[in-house]
Amino acid sequence: MPARFRAWDDYFIPGTTVLRNKFNEQDAATLQLKEEQAARLRLIELAANPVAGDFDYAHMKAIHGRIFQDVYEWAGQERVGPDSQMTKGGPDVVRFAPGDPAAPTIAYGYYPGPVVAEAAEEQYRRLASKDLLRGLPQAKFVVELAEIWGELNVVHSFREGNTRTQFVFFSQLAEQAGYRIDAAQFAVGQPLRDEFVNARFFSQATGSNERLVDVLERAISPIAPPSLEQRIEAIVRREVYRKVNPAQDPGRTRQTKGYGR
User: Fold this and answer.
1) Position 242 confidence tier, pLDDT thresholds 50, 70, 90
2) For residues 68 and 40, what is the distance between their CA atoms, to the nearest angstrom?
3) CATH code for the domain in which residue 39 is found
4) What is the pLDDT of residues 153-183, one digit of tens each?
5) Cβ atoms within 10 A of the Cβ of 84, count?
6) Dihedral through CA 58, CA 63, CA 67, CA 72, nearest 10?
7) What is the percent of the chain where pLDDT is above 90?
8) 10 Å Cβ neighbour count for 254?
9) In whole angstroms, what is the distance from residue 66 CA to residue 75 CA?
10) CB count, 10 Å around CB of 52?
11) Residue 1 falls within a domain, yes or no?
12) In this model, does residue 39 exceed pLDDT 90?
């Protein structure tokens, strides 16, 4: 973590509620647009050249670092603070039906900064103890995925960009277990987007991930074995990427434990 990020208020440009950023942008709306554009390009890169790792905390941090490296100095670093529980506002999805316009906005809690590392590491240990969810029938896989996803969301390791990072991480996790998450169904404006957000709020409020299971099972499917043509195409695509980006050749750094493509 850069030295100037030692407390919650250090994330903001002094005198504003705008996050410090590499663009030196002081308008929140403009920063959001620039962040989304920069992150989108990095997400495209990640699709072609995934971060290699063991599906542990270091792996999640590396993904976050890749996505937000152009925007924030603290990309890839766990959040500092707040010292008390972090909260975000959202609709009351426990006493009101999801989407009910009468639902008031309430505060949903996340782990305080001082315990983020410990809480995160515990969840990754649990994931490893379950063999990274490999070898499970689809129904069981979805239940276990919802459990780890719901718990890591409450940890909320990063100051910004948790959801995008989680989607990349869990999509990779699903692939090595033989399943595919159709992330397009969770894009802004798509029906599952709001259901997914509300399901995570429900998990935070109740400790139950049952709604998250319901959402995820509609976007997860088994991966069919690739055809010969698809395998050849994948090899060619990797070779082209290596020639264009020799410094990022995944063959030089890829770790094989717990991860295979």
Assistant:
1) confident
2) 10
3) 1.10.3290.10
4) 999 999 999 999 999 999 999 999 999 999 9
5) 11
6) -10
7) 82
8) 14
9) 8
10) 18
11) no
12) yes
- Rounded to whole angstroms, the Cα distance separating 63 from 132 reads 17
Measured between alpha carbons, how far is 81 from 74 in angstroms, rounded to an integer? 13
Handedness of CA 193, 126, 79, 108 (dihedral sign): positive
Question: In this structure, is residue 10 part of a structural domain?
Answer: no
DSSP E strands, 113-261: 179-181, 220-222
Give residue for tokens 């033989």.
178
Is residue 1 within 8 Å of 70, Cβ to Cβ? Answer: no
* Domain range for 92: 16-251
In a domain, 7, yes or no: no
Q: Of the ranges 128-132, 203-207, 231-235, which one carries the lowest mean pLDDT score?
A: 231-235
User: Tokens 């990309």 belong to which residue?
Assistant: 75
- What integer is the mean pLDDT of 123-147? 98
Q: Considering its fold, how many domains does the chain have in total? A: 1
**Does residue 251 contact residue 242 with C-beta atoms inside 8 Å?**
yes
Q: Is residue 257 part of a domain?
A: no
Model confidence at 255: pLDDT above 70: no
Tokens at residue 194, please? 């709001």
Q: What secondary structure letter does DSSP report for 80?
A: P
In whole angstroms, give the CA distance from residue 203 to residue 57.
21
Question: pLDDT by residue (tens digit) across 78-120?
Answer: 999 999 999 999 999 999 998 899 999 999 999 999 999 999 9
